């Protein structure tokens, strides 16, 4: 069973998503919050949802409800601390190639192309608290 936390500004959106996910045997909702500060560390996946945005996205924008894995959140936080790939790899006990793979996936999910953009987008979306 996948433990999931939901982050959304709208109470209605939070409760609707939580109800839908609780109806599935695949998910256990472990947290529902208005900001990332309320995300429990036990969550395997954090779903960030933004409601009411009906404009069309450009190809460079990430999808609404970006879901980052725990490892992607860790790497984003280490990016914000200014660590380079080799330092991130040492800190997490993984190879630099694995760090590069996580960064590619993270950049795709956030719709960014640079480390600075990833950090700025993470702060803007409430994924990072600086």
Distance between the termini: 32 Å
Helix/strand/pairing class, anyone?
alpha/beta
Mean pLDDT figure: 83
Number of helices: 5
* Alpha-carbon Rg, integer: 15 Å
Proportion of beta-strand residues? 15-25%
Report the order of strands and helices.
EHEEEHHHH
- Main pleated-sheet profile: 4 strands, mixed
Share of helix among residues? 40-55%
Which geometry do the CA atoms define?
A: globular
The strand count comes to 4
Strand order of the largest sheet: 2-1-3-4
Low-confidence regions: 53-64
Written overview of the protein:
With 130 residues, this protein is of the alpha/beta class. Helices cover 43% and strands 17% of the residues. It contains five helices and four strands, in the order βαβββαααα. The protein has a four-stranded mixed sheet with strand order 2-1-3-4. Strand 1, helix 1 and strand 2 form a beta-alpha-beta unit. Helix 2 crosses helix 4, helix 2 packs across helix 5 and helix 3 packs across helix 4. The protein starts with a strand and ends in a 6-residue tail after the last helix.
Task: Give the structure's gist in a few sentences.
This protein is of the alpha/beta class. Helices cover 43% and strands 17% of the residues. Helix 1 links the parallel strand 1 (2-8) and strand 2 (27-33).
